[in-house]
Amino acid sequence: MDKKLISILTCPKTDKPLKLHSSGNALVCTDEDIAYPIVDGIPHLTTDAAITISKIPQHENSIKKNKGK
Fold first, then answer.
1. Beta bridge partners of 20
2. Which residue of 9, 21, 39, 55 could cross-link 51, Cys pair, CB 3.0 to 4.6 Å?
3. pLDDT for 11-61, tens place per residue?
């Protein structure tokens, strides 16, 4: 994702800045244990799409399985 874009995005729940997770597959809220998945390069910034940071590996596995279909 574009660093400039990330710098203007905020968490929909807390309005705090987001940062790119080390995996590159999620944006993480800097204030809470919340992550927003990035699917096909598009961040899903809704509270319904939010996952806990610990679930990012499960989300990544789900993406890999769906791409194989």
1. 27
2. 55
3. 999 999 999 998 889 999 988 789 999 998 899 999 999 998 887 776 655
Structural domains of the chain ordered from first start: 3-67 (2.20.25.10)
Distance of CA 22 to the CA centre of its chain: 11
26: amino acid identity, one letter = A
SS3 of 67, please?
A: helix
Q: Model-level pTM? A: 0.77
**Where would I find the H helices in the chain?**
3-8, 56-67
Separation CA 27–CA 35 (nearest Å): 5
59 CB-near residues (< 8 Å, 6+ apart): 25, 26, 37, 51
CA-based end-to-end distance of the chain: 24
